[in-house]
Amino acid sequence: MKNESEARLIRQEELELLNDAISRLPQGQKDLLYFKYMLEMSDQDIAEILGIAPNSVRQYLTRARRNARKLMERGMRDYAEEQCG
Question: Residue 61 belongs to what domain range?
Answer without folding.
Answer: 2-84
